[in-house]
Amino acid sequence: GQNIDQPTEMTATEGAIVQINCTYQTSGFNGLFWYQQHAGEAPTFLSYNVLDGLEEKGRFSSFLSRSKGYSYLLLKELQMKDSASYLCAARDSNYQLIWGAGTKLIIKP
Amino acid sequence: IAGITQAPTSQILAAGRRMTLRCTQDMRHNAMYWYRQDLGLGLRLIHYSNTAGTTGKGEVPDGYSVSRANTDDFPLTLASAVPSQTSVYFCASSDGTGGLPQYFGPGTRLTVL
To answer: Average of pLDDT values for B23-46?
Structure first.
């Protein structure tokens, strides 16, 4: 079957760095997406990886290892506004997204 | 309009009633999607449309139907609502089916009693 695993909840301190991990098993693989979702709002796109390696975009970076079925989202210089759920989604051979349940990130002052 | 709009924002519905959730986008995206989001579960695809005039079934299509008469609109209909359809429903669109990012509407919170 197809499956995405990510931690349910993480806590970090304002100004620190946090890494949110995601492992995936899909029928075929055509890329890995990360989305941010604030409580009561819609998911918004953060990053996309299709090749192995690190993609950096400001304070956020995303890493992919296709051989390991593994990705992580790295958030630097954490701000209170980064408190949100972070959704990992893998695109399968049919180009449909398989979504994880999300990681709720709590930022403490 | 900028992006994707959904209506209504929220709705309480009696079981057995028919309900249509509306979704409109102004980005001229070819592909559109309907998801439901339930606590503790990932987004689950209900139906999708790769282009106007075509639709396809997602992971959880039973009890739902869609139509795509034009590029902009993608309504989702619950023919006879049941309590298990209580959820938050998100409409999304993307520019092509090649996996470009999906952009989401604000969601509809539906409660079926």
So the answer is: 94
